[in-house]
Predict the structure.
Amino acid sequence: MADAKRVVEFALSQIGTAEDPLGSNKQKYGALIDSTDWYLYKDESKTWRHLVNGYDWCTQFVDASFISTYTIDAARKMLFRPVYNNMGAVVKYAFNYFKSAGRGYTKEEYSPKAGDVIYFQNSKGLSHTGIVVAVTSTQVTTVEGNSGTNAYYVAKHTYSKTSSYIYGYGHPDYDEPEPDPKELDGFEVGKTYEVICNDPLMIRKGPAQSYDKVGELKKGDRIVCLHLRHDGSGNTWLDHEKGWSCGLYQRQRYLAEVQPVKDGWVKSGGKWYYYKDGRMLKSAWIIDKGDKYYLGADGAMLTGWQTIDRLEYYFYSDGHMACDEWLGGYFINMDGNKDGTKGAWKSNSKGKWWQTSDGRYPKNRSVRISKKDYQFDKNGYLIT
């Protein structure tokens, strides 16, 4: 029985494999293919074997992964390749075999699965390929040959599902089980759940206690349900991006659904977060009621002095950005940057004034200095 898991495991085991010598395009996948009748060509007068080792080898890696995991005949069936005149050595032809079989899709019309073949594009068309090894709600992780440093290696990569570099996917002809249920015991694929048990919730390689432990979740941790499965005892398991965790064990519920958050500010754990279209914003500027705020890498609103993109900003305790004022003796311009201009209080027998490092001083207007507003007269003296 052919399944995607074995192909994924093989691809992951090859990470780091290199050309020999580097820069030659020669590698063990092309050598394997050249030792078989994988690319066998035939016309009325002759039959010959097409050799590929030494040429661009991203497709060679994909084909060899299926051939190595199964047999040539099984690989042909899964990749929809003909026995003779197999043009799949070229990326666009490999995709077209999937498309002709009704298994080739653009990224807009298909949600990828582990074990799928991914196809990339450039300005000239289909240009590169690899094997999907993991998928989350927003990202796809691949293993690709002819990749890594200087394209000399088998390497692992992660992309946004909407990346313009991705063209689409081919779904091999695996012997697939019945589709997983979309809803099971109150859980639903695609929804977010939070750990509610006090003890750590184990993460396992598969949907049963017999599978190896690969990690754990703590109370308050959140996961997105990707698949649902019952084990032999009727317990409910949720597949998420880190593995499988038991959501319902002997009628005890370990996970609770996280209700969608309304857009706007939300306070949690003493910190403020901002949601838009139901999603928490991170590492982002926002404007709210005319004031600017910045959300850190964890989504929490920043306060105090912060360096963002190599520029210094100050955010008040309520999170709004300081601008057009003096703080710590430095001027904060209209963009919120500490621009390097210094200032200090000066005085003489006539009064007190604020003077900048280039000799200027405010006249007949109000200036905010060290979080307080000061009014100066037409001569620049402080009005007390």
Q: What stands out?
A: The CA atoms of residues 269 and 300 lie 10 Å apart.
